[in-house]
Structures are given as structure tokens and as C-alpha cells.
Amino acid sequence: MKKNILISCCLFLVTQFLSAQKIEIAPYLQDAEPNAIKIMWQTNFGEESVVHWGTKKNELQNNTKGIAFDINFTEKRVHEVSLTGLKKFTTYFYKVQTGKAISDIYQFKTPAFKDFPKEINLVAMSDMQNDWQHPTKFKEIVEEGVLAYFDKNFEGDISENLAMVLIPGDLVENGTKFKQWEDDFFKQSEKLFSKVPVYPVPGNHEKNSDYFFKYFSLPKNGSPEYAEHWWYKDYANTRVIGLDSNNGYKDIKQQLVWLAKLLEETAKNDAIDFVFAQLHHPHKSELWIPGEEDFTGKVVKLLEGFTNKTNKPSLHFFGHTHGYSRGQSKEHKHLWVNVASAGGAIDNWGEFEGRDYDEFTVTQDEYGFVLATINTDKENPSFTLKRISRGNNIEFRNNELRDSITVYKKTIQPNTPILTDLNKEEKPIYKVLLKASTFKSKKKGAFHAGANWQVATTKDFSKKVYDSWKQHENWYYKENRQKNDDLTDETLDRKLNNNTVYYVRVRYRDQFLNWSNWSEIKTFKTIKQ
């Protein structure tokens, strides 16, 4: 009898344990505004969706209810609660509750509205889809990378110092597999996204899955019929634009029409100094040419046109290629930045077909993330990008700064270079040496970061025979191909016509993407043969 009672009690306790409500995905933050924010989480069952919150950790006096919805045709529920009536640029504490399941207490900080802090930080990283050889690499990037970096370099909680996290795609290996979202993405990032809002766009590995659009509550200000496929979010003086470069959406003309219209509106908005776009696929990739996508080239063209028209610098963050690259457009203050890999297997040098593109200054086959620090100075706002590296499977790096660039809104041109006189004697038809003056600029700290040499057979340069654009460094396949090149001279490495007059000009660029004016045109004549 006692044995049967004991067995019954054990079965009861086991049943109670198995049926107990529990939070499977810790709360994470979405769509933050100066006076509102959304909080989401997942439970094994239960409709109740309550957030207890307040400005003091031990006094969560406010209770806000939200909604719960099915995620995978089981009893599991995703919960979404919208907190409104918040104060701008204020720290709040919160915990979530579904029945008897209650979370730990977390905190977040609302964005500012007009009186922005001098500096604002955001992080961009991508392609954290699970690599079976390193299944917790994303957790490492989050906890030993982002969190550890902020803990070391900033005072206070990360919610006080990081405004948002951008993810240009490939959050999981297969977006149609339900458990990957919990195990490979949310559980590995819960210490970050419970405190800092996350804004992803889909990559090809999401496979246009409903899970992506159920798990995230992104701004719904894009085309209504394609809600959350493209959208924008303003923070301080920066407009962040999310786009969908995947099959099924890259060919929808409405996306580019929407983007063009948005950029026209942004051009008239004096409160916006910078535009940061994010989408998954690269237009050009030095590590993996097969991953390139023409759609992204169309986006780049629109952003370049916007920047050219407004003098508001822009950039596009992308992924797909599992490594880091940073480049810039030739004629515009527009950056190209590959922010991978945050977990996906590295695309190692030599593993795939690659190419040394003029646009890119540095490419590295490494894990890591990009920190963008936006300076809201009214006189001359700027932003600085830093690549924080975790190395690769051959060489570990502990949050090492591997690349950085600063771009200012205001243009301060370098001094116009002066070409050395070329008319003293006729030149050979090959390997003509061109020389110009040293780099000078009125901009404090500016140095010689680029040069563009042009040679033509017409004075208006309509018939160019040589057009060389070089950066002060070109890190490709682990070596600097620009080493020991001071950019003030150029050797024409091609055969010229004999007994012909050629026109030459040059311009210099600083590291802030400011071009000088073109030099005065000089000529030389090749020898008769």
C-alpha cells in the first residue's frame, strides 16, 4: 500500500514538473521609441502576457498586459507586450510573467528624442547561423565579445551604452527548423537582447520562414503588403533602413521604389545626418564572388545618389560572406561593410573564388562584430566604425581592434595636389613615371589615404587611357598590397601610342573620404618611332 502511494506521489510530482509553465526564450527587446518599447518572450504554454516594470529595480509597480500567439501549432506561445507612456532616455527595469513562470529582472534604456547624448553606439554583426564544429560560437561572440568589450571600455550597464544591434541576416542555419531559433539564436544571445533592442533583416538561411516574422516585431513603416521585409528606424541623427535582398523579394520593384521615395524624404529631413542600410547579400565580395548580388548594387547606386545630392554620408552593412570587409565608393562618402561572421563557419582565404576589388581597403577571414559610434555634434557630426575581432580557428584574437574609419558630414577638402612638370622631354611609350606634390590638408589629423590618377588623349578626359584609384592600404589575402606606396607617384604600366600628346591629372583623398579638387592638367608627348 505504502509503495503504491509512494509511486503515485512520484508520478504526481513528475507530472507537475513536466507540466509546469516555464520561460523557454528569455525576454528580448524590440522596436524601441523614446516613449515606448516592445518586449517578447516564449513559454511552453499559457496565454497570460504580463510585464512588471518601473524605474527602480525593487519597485516594479507598473503592470502591462499584452498578447500571446501560436508559434508552431503546439501549446507553445510567443508573448508580446507594448510598454507605452515611457520617459525618453530613461532606464527602466522589468520582468515578465506567464502564469507561475516569472523571469529574472532586466533593464533597458529608452532612446532620446531631441537632446541626444554626444555619442551613440550601435553594433552590427551577422551570419551567426550554427556551425556544427563550433556550436556555441555565437554565444562566445555575444558574451566574450560584445558584452566583455563594453564592460571593459564603458562605464555602467550595457543598456546605458549600446542603443541597438543590427543583424543583416542568417540568424540560424535553417529558418524552417523551429528548435534552431531557441537553441542557436535566442539562448545564445539572451544576455544581450534582454537589455538592448535587436533589429534583424532576413538572410537566405531564414528561408522566408514564418518563424522569423513571428519572433520579431520590426517597424511596420515599409510597404504594407510586404510588412517587415523592408522598414526604417530613426535613432538620434541616423536613419537605419532594413531591406530584403533574398529571392522572391529582390525582384519586387516596389522595394526599390519605396527606398528611392524614402531617401527623397530623408534628403529633406534636417534631423537626419546619416543613413545606415542593412541587407544580407554583398554587391561585391573579395572572399566569395559567387555570393554577390546585383540587387545590392542597385541599392548602393541609390545610396550613392542620395549622398551625392545631400552630402549626408551613408553606408550599407551586409553579410552572406563569412568574414569582414570594409570599402568605400569612389565618388561618394558611402561605406561598404561586411559585418560577418558572428558564428557561421569562416570563408577562409583561398577556399572560394575571390577578387581584389578597388573599393575594398581591408578584408579579413575572421569572427567579430562592428561597433559604430555616432557623434551628434551639431557643427560637424560624424560616425566611427571599429572592427572588433575574435580571430579565426588558426589565430585567436581577444576583441582586437583590426580596422577603423571615421566619416564626417562636413567636407573639408585636402589641398589640391601639384603635378610635376612633364614637358621637359619626350617620354617613352611605356613605364612613364608621374609625380605630384606631398599631401596637405587643413583638416586636423588628415593623412593621405587615396589617390586617383587619370591619363587621357583629350583635354576633357572623355577618352581616358588610364584611370588608377588606389588606397593607402589594401589588405587582401593577409598582405598589404599597397605597402611602401606613398601615393604621390604613379608609373603607367601600359603601352602608349608613339608621337602622341597625353593629358594627366591627379586628386588626393583623405581617410575621411574627402577628395581634393583635380590638379592642374599637365601634358607629355611620347617619342616618335
Low-confidence stretches: 8-18
| Strand content bin | 25-35%
User: How many helices in DSSP terms?
Assistant: 7
Q: How helical, in percent, are the residues?
A: 10-25%
Main sheet characteristics: 7 strands, mixed
Major sheet strand order: 13-14-15-16-18-17-19
Rg of Cα set: 27 Å
Kindly state the mean pLDDT as a whole number? 94
> Structural class given helices, strands, pairing?
alpha+beta
General shape: elongated
Distance between the termini: 117 Å
Count every beta strand, where a strand is a DSSP E run of 2 or more residues.
30
List keywords for this structure.
elongated, 7-stranded mixed beta sheet, 529 residues
Q: How are the elements arranged and paired?
A:
Layout: H1 2-19, E1 23-33, E2 36-43, E3 50-54, E4 62-65, E5 67-70, E6 77-84, E7 91-98, E8 101-102, E9 106-109, E10 119-124, H2 137-153, H3 158-161, E11 164-168, H4 178-193, E12 198-201, H5 210-215, E13 231-235, E14 238-242, H6 253-268, E15 274-278, H7 294-310, E16 314-318, E17 324-328, E18 334-339, E19 360-364, E20 367-375, E21 382-391, E22 396-408, E23 433-435, E24 448-456, E25 464-471, E26 475-476, E27 479-480, E28 489-491, E29 501-510, E30 522-525
Parallel strand pairs: 10-11, 11-12, 14-15, 15-16, 16-18
Antiparallel strand pairs: 1-2, 2-6, 3-4, 3-7, 5-6, 7-8, 7-9, 10-20, 13-14, 17-18, 17-19, 20-21, 21-22, 23-28, 24-25, 24-29, 26-27, 29-30
Helix pairs in contact: 2-4, 6-7
